[in-house]
Amino acid sequence: MSAKLTVVRSGALTTVQDSGRRGHAHLGVPRSGALDAPAMHLANRLLGNDPGAAVLETTLTGCALRPDRAVTVVVGGAPCPVTVDGRPVAWGAPVRVPAGAVLDAGTATAGVRSYVAVAGGIAVEPVLGSRATDLLSGLGPAPLRDGDVLPLGAPARWTALPAAAPWPAPPTQLVLPLRLGPRADWFTAAALRTLTSATYRVSPHSNRIGLRTEGPPLERRLTDELPSEGMVLGAVQVPWDGRPVVFLHDHPTTGGYPVIGVVADAALASAAQAAVATPVRFTLG
């Protein structure tokens, strides 16, 4: 019988995430998956898991868990205090949690999303090949609630815990390289200059669907209605208020607002850790 985790404190928003559901956009299913994939991969590697094994992604306030048997855990991503039965333990390194003890990943001291990886991975039932929670479509397990019980997979056979690895710091300024198009021609030349010269800030209305920004609005040259068209990860959509929205992993697969450009996938992990009011700059590249 597999080990299990009981959720003692679910926090503001804690979800199960892995590498996501690729290849289903034609069915209206977005990719989903961990917003900070490098953090998920590193936490899993420190445990001997497959890099894409399912983990828990917390938001700002962390979570607390109780295993029914001894497990090894890594808490990484956004830095936060970590305790086992109230005793401080290492963040960003493997920690042994005895059966019945409570692992608490506390409130992030920087960044937004911490990742709790457990040896063997979170073994909830996959949907369309992924265990990820998708907040937009509702696929995958629901966001965690107090009292939920999560099954764990079998840990890898190994004897020595690896040392802690260097973790990238959450951004104090978010720089997003942008490739213009496909609807950049719907905006004025002044709007394009504004986009790549102004400083925006992360809006408190950001979520797993998109990073919303606050700053100068972008003026449209064309004011026609745009028929819905396909959306990709990293698309920068501009709704009627003129403030850019960067689509993240739970984004819709179609949309009717013009996309002024697309941010490269590699920059989106930093976007996942950009706290409210973090300065945002878009650069061409």
Q: Average pLDDT across residues?
A: 95
The main sheet comes to: 7 strands, mixed, barrel
Strand residues, percent? 25-35%
> What's the number of extended β-strand segments?
20
Q: Can you write the helix and strand succession as a string?
A: EEHEEEEEEEEEEHEEEEEEEHE
Instruction: Tell me, briefly, the overall form.
Output: elongated
Q: Provide the spatial order of strands within the biggest beta sheet.
A: 12-19-16-17-14-13-20
| Distance between the ends | 51 Å
Estimated structural class: mainly beta
- Taking pLDDT < 50 over at least 5 consecutive residues as the criterion, the unreliable ranges are none
How many H/I helical runs? 3
Question: Rg from C-alpha positions?
Answer: 20 Å
Helix content: under 10%
Structure description:
The protein is mainly beta. Helices cover 8% and strands 28% of the residues. The strands form 4 sheets. Strands 12-19-16-17-14-13-20 form a 7-stranded mixed β-barrel. A 6-stranded antiparallel beta sheet has the order 7-6-9-4-1-11, with no helix packed on it. Strand 6 (82-84) and strand 7 (87-89) form a beta hairpin. It is elongated and about 60 Å long.
